[in-house]
Amino acid sequence: MAKKILITGGAGFLGSNLSERLLTEGNKIYCLDNFYTGFKRNVEHLLDHPDFELIDHDVTEPFDKLDLDVDQIYNLACPASPPHYQEDPVFTTRTAIFGVINCLELAKKTGARMFQASTSEVYGDPLVHPQPETYWGSVNPIGIRSCYDEGKRVGETLMFDYHRQHGVDIRIVRIFNTYGPRMNPEDGRVVSNFIVQALKGEDITIYGDGKQTRSFCYVDDLLEGFVRLMNQDETVGPVNCGNPGEFTMLELAEKVLAKVDSNSKLTFHPLPGDDPKQRKPDITLAKKYLDWEPKVALDDGLDQAIAYFKSAIK
Ligand code: NAD
Ligand code: UDP
What we know:
The chain is an alpha/beta fold. The chain folds into two domains: 4-180 and 217-244 and 280-295, NAD(P)-binding Rossmann-like Domain (Rossmann fold), CATH 3.40.50.720; 190-211 and 246-278 and 305-312, UDP-galactose 4-epimerase, domain 1 (Alpha-Beta Complex). The protein is 37% helix and 17% strand. The chain is built from nine helices and 13 strands. The chain has helices at residues 13-24, 82-87, 89-110, 146-166, 190-200, 219-230, 249-259, 284-290, 298-312; strands at 4-8, 28-33, 52-56, 72-75, 113-119, 170-175, 178-179, 204-207, 213-214, 217-218, 239-241, 247-248, 266-269. The strands form four sheets. Strands 3-2-1-4-5-6-11 form a seven-stranded parallel β-sheet, sandwiched between helices. α3 packs parallel to α4 (146-166), α5 (190-200) runs parallel beside α7 (249-259) and α5 (190-200) packs across α9 (298-312). The N and C termini lie far apart (41 Å). The mean pLDDT is 97. Bound molecules: nicotinamide-adenine-dinucleotide and uridine-5'-diphosphate.
């Protein structure tokens, strides 16, 4: 049945792909964004659709005046790439905390089910590998990543406290590094950096020795996990969604260079503070409750992403 769905951060990378998917499935979409790291161009092609509404609003401000009545809320609003969330760390923490509170207040008022986009960053620089949802993490509370990591951890706390205290219907996903079309070429995260650098023939910037690992999920796979989590009643989460394939940054750079005909050279730069050494999701819960696992291998997803960035940076 068609639902009225609020998507905060709807003009960003994940939000715009999710808006398109849920609109195509026949729902009414309220796409809310303040365009801090997102762009109107990401949803330009949806603007004329009668069931799509773009709302220019900051999630740190209450939603009362927006007069929204919705069935579901996906809270995605938050800068997500380290250079962007570290630019104004106080704003990042405010967004992570007040954004969740304002969404939860709306959920409490309307009875909507609320989905929170949490992150593998709640595990910090993990001492357990791969990371299951039962692992409480290893996070520095005062480092340069803390505004995001701790903000997202408090986000989860608020979700569970509103659930226990006010009976709000919640779902929490912990997202591992995701890439694909509509990423901002200047986003600053590793997949977009390496592809854009290779396409432009610029140096590939490896931070540290490049032996740190990450697991990269293609956007369509991730969104399938979101929708499955939101539309089942077995678990409120948190549930990890990510691709368990694990690669070093050197391996990623080599893959990108092999796919793009490029003269780019690898260059080595200092590792940013608190950069996690390894990351890989344990997706046992997602398999059990959502019957979900990623289908797109890194090689295939990179082909899609490269095709997108070729047209995006023309
Ligand atoms: P993104 O930067 O492309 O999108 C974030 C969107 O939120 C942007 O459109 C931005 O303008 C908007 N926004 C930021 N602050 C806001 C505010 N105060 N009010 C209203 N809008 C605001 O990043 P993304 O990759 O699409 O990430 C979306 C969500 O998923 C974020 O919450 C992020 O923490 C989470 N996440 C993403 C990844 C990933 O790999 N892409 C991994 C873990 C978690
Ligand atoms: N990284 C890199 N070169 C870049 C951007 C990032 O080597 O141009 C590294 C970064 O230090 C980290 C990994 O790639 O170890 C993933 O970084 P990203 O910003 O994509 O996400 P994170 O998982 O660290 O939040």
